[in-house]
Design brief:
The chain contains twelve helices and eleven strands. It is α+β, with helices and mostly antiparallel strands. The strands form three sheets. It has a five-stranded mixed sheet with strand order 6-8-9-11-10. Strands 2-1-4-3 form a four-stranded antiparallel sheet, sandwiched between helices. It has a two-stranded antiparallel sheet with strand order 5-7.
Length: 501
């Protein structure tokens, strides 16, 4: 009415300068504005009021409705028809604009949901993201409940509004999970509930339930239901992807475990049978000896038993050390000891096999004491030396050199063998990795154990090609603490004491 009054006032002011068809244009403009701004009903009212105002104010005799105005009836009808047409077209255009904006908003919402879910490979993260987006898109609160292997529902994601489900609301979610159909307000099932539950269904399998506390039931009207279904499908795809990723990880781990188990069994069974067969053969020969064996033969058989028993002991010890390393049960018992003592003990353990081999020791007298577990570090040198003995010619030397660096004690164990193939410097520390050396026994655990023990001490170990040919293994142990100072002995005698840390 105000728009029609404004158009009438403008027409009255400009009536002396404009023709009557020009004044009609003012009213058509008012009808168009009413249709675009207020909708179809107000625009039809504006069309009717415009015809009446034009007849009353601008058709002589003025300010009256008389029969004389009947000759302008066609003008009034055309004016009203044009107004109605403009109203319908404008309303339709506005409706299309609203639908396009709504589609754009829905597309943007689905894009944002997909963008956040595409990189997620964890079910709980996907559920949390879905609940957050559901609350933003539909209003109110959202929650995602996932179905566990037992069939029970577990709450995995909640919107920032913290949608807490009561027992009766959980019953609605359980019904939706069991039957695979929506339930709650706006549906045919349990319309009196306070939450609307939508199944997250992948084929015949229900992965979970999306629970919404909707501020309005318009979301569940026919034209909006498709968007809700598309939203639920995106969440379902993300959950499927997370489950498939987890299953793939489990399958890969199972395959890797099976490969390692097969490799371990085949290698260990072979390497255990060899010393056992040698021990059994030598022992049987000694048992069945009836004076036919001479002293040299008997001594040789006894040496065979001792050497093979030590070999089997090292193999079993390596297996046990690797189990302790991987289970985290390796406990360090650190003591302040000189490096020369540990190296000498390792050489003594390998005396039967290392005798006759040239060992070059370059251990300066001023090397600092190191705080290490002497038993474990001795095992590192035993494994490195045993590795050098197995893979190098009998006449080649073995070098052990040590130098103190800045806060680090650097120890190098080098040989003059064939060396490491290019690109295998890091691979040699992998479990069960063995180079191509036919006839050389072992299970490929010696170097991984060395790496685990050194890393437990806070150090590093690296393999590289030696400058003069062969392989070189460099151990770097931290020197971060000062060694203990010797204390004078009392009358009763006491050992050197360490100052408190």
């Amino acid at each position: 009415a105000l728009l029609v009054a404004a158009a009438t006032a403008v027409g009255a002011i400009t009536r002396k300068y404009l023709a009557l068809p020009d004044i009609v244009a003012f009213y058509l403009l008012v009808i168009m504005v009413a249709a675009f701004r207020f909708g179809r009903g107000p625009s039809l009212a504006a069309a009717a009021l415009s015809v009446a105002a034009y007849d009353f104010f601008f058709i002589p005799p003025f300010l009256t409705f008389t029969v004389a105005h009947a000759r302008h009836l066609l003008t009034f009808a055309m004016m009203f028809a044009v107004g109605v047409t403009i109203s319908s077209l404008t309303h339709r255009m506005r409706q299309r604009e609203q639908e396009a904006r709504l589609r754009e908003e829905r597309t943007a919402a689905l894009y944002a949901l997909t963008r956040d879910l595409v990189a997620v490979l964890d079910e709980e993260q996907a559920a949390q993201i879905a609940a957050k987006h559901a609350a933003e898109v539909f209003g109110g609160g959202g929650a995602v409940l996932l179905r566990e292997a037992s069939g029970a529902l577990a709450l995995k994601g909640m919107s920032p509004g913290d949608l807490r489900l009561q027992e009766e609301e959980l019953a609605v979610a359980r019904w939706t999970s069991e039957h695979g159909r929506p339930a709650g307000p706006g549906t045919d099932t349990l319309p009196g509930a306070s939450v609307t539950c939508v199944p997250l269904q992948s084929g015949p399998k229900t992965l979970g339930v999306l629970a919404l506390r909707l501020p309005s039931l318009d979301v569940l009207e026919v034209e909006h239901r498709a968007f809700l279904d598309a939203f639920a499908r995106q969440v379902t795809l993300a959950l499927e992807r997370a489950q498939l990723s987890e299953e793939a990880k489990t399958s890969a781990l199972r395959v890797r475990t099976e490969e390692m188990r097969s490799s371990l069994l085949s290698t260990v069974s072979h390497d255990l049978r060899t010393p056992l067969a040698a021990i059994t053969g030598a022992g049987t020969a000694l048992r069945d000896d009836q004076g036919r064996l001479g002293p040299e033969q008997r001594a040789e058989l006894l040496d065979t038993i001792c050497v093979e028993a030590q070999r089997m002991e090292r193999l079993i010890g390596n297996l046990l050390d690797m189990v302790r390393l991987e289970s985290g049960a390796l406990a360090l018992k650190c003591e302040w000891v000189p490096l020369e003592e540990i190296v000498g003990s390792a050489l003594a353990r390998l005396e039967p096999t290392i005798s006759g081999r040239e060992v070059i020791l370059d251990l300066p007298d001023d090397l600092p004491l190191i705080s290490v577990d002497p038993v474990l570090l001795e095992q590192v040198f035993v494994n490195l030396l045993d590795n050098a003995l197995k893979y190098t010619p009998p006449e080649s030397p073995i070098e052990i050199r040590a130098r103190p660096r800045e806060n680090v004690l650097e120890v190098e164990v080098a040989d003059r063998g064939p060396g490491l193939p290019p690109g295998t410097e890091a691979l040699v520390f992998g479990k069960f990795y063995r180079g191509r050396h036919p006839g050389v026994g072992g299970v490929g655990l010696g170097l991984p154990i060395c790496q685990g023990i050194v890393q437990a001490h806070g150090g590093t170990i690296a393999a590289e090609k030696h400058r003069e040919g062969g392989a070189s293994f460099t151990i770097r142990l931290p020197l971060l603490q000062a060694p203990p100072s010797a204390m004078p002995l009392g009358d009763e005698g006491s050992s050197a004491q360490e100052p408190p840390p």
